[in-house]
């Protein structure tokens, strides 16, 4: 009986060690992300935010004003989702490499567009020169539900090769809308 109790404690210790390791990795990622900016830039951002907040707090003194603003933003988001048909269900970001003027982050997105589901995985390379920041998408991988259609497969391959997310989302929205219309039409005739 002592062995089983010891085993339970050892399992619990191992579980806690794994949890500590995951939390430490998350902490390192957040620390890396926060060190992307210099101390000067952080202080300027804080001062700018404080000025904006003080200016906004005079105009939005009551919580009901903030609630109205939140409802307005939710309405705008709802409109965009209805307009494009795209809904993101999850997003994760992890910093892969970080130097003084270069940052590589790995992003994972999943969502739906009308009745089609999709998953994206890509790396975003951000290069910072004195005053400008440029971003390039690399290693784009797209997984779509409707892989049996050869035209969609060609489009996905082309998009992965060129790394153009804007074209992907525009085309996905249009294709998924018509895909849904075709599906409903065929269901009607069944």
Automatic annotation (TrEMBL):
GO biological-process terms attached to the record: CENP-A containing chromatin assembly
Coiled-coil region: 6-33
Matches recorded under InterPro entries: CENP-P
A GO cellular component entry from the record: nucleus
Keywords from the UniProt entry: Coiled coil
Protein's recorded name: Centromere protein P
Gene name, Swiss-Prot/TrEMBL: CENPP
